[in-house]
Give the backbone structure.
Amino acid sequence: MKTIIVGAGVAGLAIGWKLAQAGVDVLILERAQPARAATWAAAGMIAPTAESAHANADETQFARWSAALWPDFAAQIETQSGRRVGYKRDGALIVAPTDEAAQELRARSNKALLTASEARAREPLLSASIAGALWDSDEAQVDNRALGVALANAFLRAGGKLSPNEAAVRIETEGSHHAVRTPFGLYAGDNILIAAGAWSAEIETGTPVLPPARPVKGEMLALTPPANTLLPRQVVWGNGVYLVPRESRLLIGATMRETGFDISVTKQAENWLLDRAIALMPALASWTLDEHWAGLRPGSPDGLPILGETRLKNLFVATGQFRNGILFAPAVAETVSRLILGSAAPEIRSFTPQRFAEVS
Ligand SMILES: Cc1cc2nc3c(=O)[nH]c(=O)nc-3n(C[C@H](O)[C@H](O)[C@H](O)COP(=O)(O)OP(=O)(O)OC[C@H]3O[C@@H](n4cnc5c(N)ncnc54)[C@H](O)[C@@H]3O)c2cc1C
């Protein structure tokens, strides 16, 4: 079996890796370099609880399943690539800055909230004025930039082929046979998978078949602490931002704006992120801004992932993971590789690419 995958982000690489391990001849076409788009820009949180506030039941179940797959997924990538991915389950504090936010948190969780002083005992950098916090010891993180490099390596070592700097321009279809046209050639496969992140709807097709994925921009910052200052020990959420200790830096994310395929960084976003982070942890006012970047999350009209076969047989899509593409990676890899292999896959009807009127 031969599968052509468009896009070497975490989705395309993870699915390609699974397929290559199952003996499939896999070629990934990547417009730029592998894992340098949203996969690189992310915060790397594996946060099924913190991200569950607006999730539907299928998504919550998928997130929990994926989080449970993560330890093994990370270990296998490390073994097969010989590179570290920095998976850590060191928990998260979800802070309620106000009494109203504390009430909302109580409604979402069956766990008791920490009082402000208990939360500050766990995280001394927190502001004295918070109302309380939820402690979730299961939340985890991975170094997403290291993950991208390791996953590409594991994919190649499993026998997969990767063609960087080669963009898919068009899908050419005859019946249930498809081929991907690039400026350099035409690649036919038994299956084609579009895993091109926020750009997944941009590839030409004869008839409208690719679901309406769209870019949702996120800007992030990284701060370095003054000498002899410890980073927080865990991820901290609150005030509409999250703070992620990563190596020697603290990441602050993220804005959400729909401005098309634009990854410029703005002073406005920098101020917004800093103001909110400093309100949560006043000491951050004296930390140094080290990096400011932006990336494009793959959004979908209903906010749910888009995973599975399109109405054209043998043409598959994996996109729409929105804020959770790192969290979802193991479950996306498992589900979509099983669908392509024709083996039993968990049926997630609400994620089907065929649910959109534009393509049905
Ligand atoms: C600021 C920010 C913070 C985030 N934080 C988190 C987080 O903490 N946890 C979490 O789970 N998720 C997070 N996310 C979301 C996560 O990053 C994405 O959901 C995930 O990376 C999507 O992976 P992907 O492989 O689908 O897309 P991408 O990583 O964007 O990869 C798509 C690839 O397709 C390529 N491509 C596009 N068009 C073509 C073409 N025509 N031909 C060939 N190649 C093409 C691109 O060059 C790119 O390499 C965050 C996202 C952002 C922006």
In short: The domain at 92-136+215-299 is CATH 3.30.9.10 (D-Amino Acid Oxidase; Chain A, domain 2). The chain has a mean pLDDT of 96.
